[in-house]
Automatic annotation (TrEMBL):
It comes from Neorhizobium phenanthreniclasticum. Pathway: Carbohydrate acid metabolism; D-glucarate degradation; 2,5-dioxopentanoate from D-glucarate: step 1/2. It holds the Pfam family MR_MLE_C. Its cofactor is Mg(2+). Belongs to the mandelate racemase/muconate lactonizing enzyme family. GlucD subfamily. SMART domains: MR_MLE (SM00922). This is glucarate dehydratase. The keyword Lyase applies. Residues 164-258 form the Mandelate racemase/muconate lactonizing enzyme C-terminal domain.
Length: 415
C-alpha cells in the first residue's frame, strides 16, 4: 500500500472578534484540510495551518510523498525535510508562528498517515499511540475578552466582553453550554489590575474551577511578578506571562505558581534550557508543531522524566484537529491538566454529523478506526468557497485591530 494522491484544501472558518495582546481575531481563521489517498483507495484526513507559508510547505512536500508507505513515518519526515527549500529545512524557524516548517509539515501529513494505518488495522489512532488511558478527555473553557461585533457586522451571540463582570457572564455561558470544569483567560488585553480583578471574580463565581491566565508574553517581568503575587493561591498555572526564557526564569523564581508555556518551549531542543533555568513547570503540547501526534506523546514522557507537567495548546481549529488532539490526550498518561480548545468559538466544521459534544467539559475519545471522523464534502466545499471570498490570506490580529482603533500599535510587552 502506497500513497497515490494528496489533496490540500485551504478553508476559511468564521471566527469571533477575540482579543489578545497582539490585537483581535479577524472574521475568518484559516486552515488547510489534507486528504492523503492510497493506491487501494484508503483515505486519511489531516488539518493544519492555513497561512501562506504553511500552505507553501505543504504544497512543496506533497509530491515527494507519492509512493510512500503510510507506515513509514521516519521516511515521511526525511522526505518532507528534503522537499522543503533551504532555509525551511530542519533547523530553520519559520513564519508559522516561529515553528519549524519541517515539523509543521511532517505533522500535517503524519495525522492522515496514522488515520490510514488505523483504518487498515481497524484500530483507533489512540491505539496506535499506545492505547487510550482515559475514555474521555477534559477541556478547559477558553475565555477571551472580545468586541461585540466584527466591523460591519451585527453583534454576535456573546456580545462585548471588556470588563471583569462581562467575563464572568461569558464564563457562565461557556460552562452552562459545555460543562467545562476549568477556566483559561486570554490575558494581556486589559490593564493587569483589571485582569487580576477578573480572576478574583471568576474565583468567586466558580469556587472549584482551576483557573489560568495567558497574556502571551504581554507583561514585563515586573508586571508579571506583581500579578503572580496577587494571584498566589488563585491560579493552577500562569501561562507565558513574559516573553523569552530568561524572563520566564526570573518570574518563575519569584512565584510559587507554576509557569506554563507554549511560547518558550516549542521544540525538544528547548526543554533542557527551560529545565536548567527552572523557567517552566508545565509544557503545552500541540501536535501541529511538535512534529506530530507520536512526538506529542514523546513530549509527555520527557516531561514526566523531568518532573514537568504537560497540558495542551490550541489555535482556532476544526474537527479533524480536535479528533487528533483527543487521541493524543487519551494516550498521554501524565497529561495532568484540562486541554485548551478554541472549538466552542468556531461555528463550522468539515466533519460529518456532530461527533464532538462536550459533556461535563470532556469529549469522548472517538472509537472508529483511525481518527474516527469522516469528511463532509458539502461542508468542506462551503468553507473552501469561503476561503476564496474571505479576503484573508494571513492571520494578522494587529492589522485588524487597527480597523477598530487606527492608533493601535503592537507592543511586546504591552503592560
Ligand atoms: O495559548 C495560546 O498561546 C494560544 O492559544 C494562542 C492563540 O493564538 C490565542 O492567543 C488566540 O487565539 O488569540
Ligand atoms: Mg498560550
Amino acid at each position: 500500500m502506497r500513497i497515490a494522491e494528496i489533496h490540500l484544501t485551504p478553508v476559511a472558518i468564521p471566527d469571533k472578534p477575540l482579543l489578545n495582546c497582539k490585537g483581535v481575531h479577524q472574521p475568518y481563521a484559516l486552515r488547510t484540510i489534507i486528504e492523503v489517498i492510497c493506491d487501494d483507495g484508503t483515505t486519511g484526513l489531516g488539518e493544519s495551518y492555513g497561512s501562506i507559508k504553511a500552505l507553501e510547505g505543504l504544497r512543496r512536500a506533497a509530491p515527494a510523498l507519492r509512493g510512500l508507505d503510510p507506515f513509514h513515518l521516519h521516511e515521511l519526515k526525511s522526505r518532507v525535510a528534503a522537499a522543503l527549500p533551504e532555509g525551511g529545512g530542519i533547523n530553520a524557524r519559520t513564519a508559522v508562528a516561529d515553528h519549524k516548517l519541517t515539523d509543521v509539515v511532517t505533522s500535517a501529513f503524519e495525522v492522515p498517515c496514522m488515520d490510514i494505518q488505523g483504518k487498515m488495522l481497524g484500530r483507533s489512532v489512540g491505539d496506535l499511540l499506545g492505547g487510550a488511558v482515559r475514555e474521555t478527555v477534559p477541556f478547559s473553557a477558553y475565555l477571551f475578552f472580545k468586541f461585540g461585533a466584527h466591523i460591519g457586522q451585527d453583534k454576535d451571540e456573546w456580545g462585548e466582553v471588556l470588563t471583569p463582570d462581562q467575563m464572568v457572564r461569558e464564563a457562565k455561558k461557556m460552562v452552562a453550554d459545555h460543562g467545562f470544569k476549568s477556566l483559561k483567560v486570554k490575558g494581556g488585553v486589559l490593564h493587569p489590575d483589571l485582569e487580576i480583578e477578573t480572576m478574583f471574580k471568576l474565583r468567586e463565581a466558580f469556587p472549584h474551577h482551576p483557573l489560568r491566565i495567558d497574556p502571551n508574553g504581554g507583561w514585563t517581568v515586573e508586571t508579571a511578578i506583581y500579578v503572580a503575587r496577587r494571584l498566589e493561591g488563585v491560579l493552577e498555572y500562569l501561562e507565558d506571562p513574559v516573553a523569552g526564557m530568561d524572563a520566564m526564569a526570573q518570574v518563575a523564581a519569584a512565584t510559587s505558581i507554576p509557569l506554563a508555556t507554549n511560547m518558550v518551549v516549542l521544540e525538544f531542543d528547548q526543554i533542557a534550557e527551560a529545565f536548567t533555568k527552572r523557567a517552566v513547570k508545565v509544557v503545552l503540547s500541540d501536535h501541529h508543531y511538535w512534529g506530530g501526534m507520536r512526538a506529542s506523546t514523546h513530549l509527555g514522557k520527557v516531561c514526566e522524566v523531568l518532573d514537568m507537567g504537560i497540558s495542551m495548546h490550541s489555535n482556532s481549529h476544526l474537527g479533524i484537529t480536535l479528533a487528533a488532539m483527543v487521541h493524543v490526550a487519551s494516550a498521554t498518561p501524565n497529561l495532568g491538566y484540562d486541554c485548551d480548545t478554541h472549538y466552542p468559538w468556531v461555528g463550522a466544521d468539515v466533519v460529518e454529523g456532530a461527533p464532538f459534544v462536550f459533556r461535563d467539559g470532556a469529549l469522548a475519545v472517538p472509537r472508529g478506526p483511525g481518527l474516527g471522523v469522516t469528511l463532509d464534502r458539502i461542508r468542506l466545499a462551503e468553507l473552501a468557497a469561503l476561503y476564496e471570498v474571505a479576503g484573508v490570506r494571513e492571520r494578522d490580529d494587529t492589522l485588524y485591530m487597527k480597523q477598530f482603533d487606527p492608533g493601535y500599535e503592537r507592543r511586546v510587552p504591552r503592560w
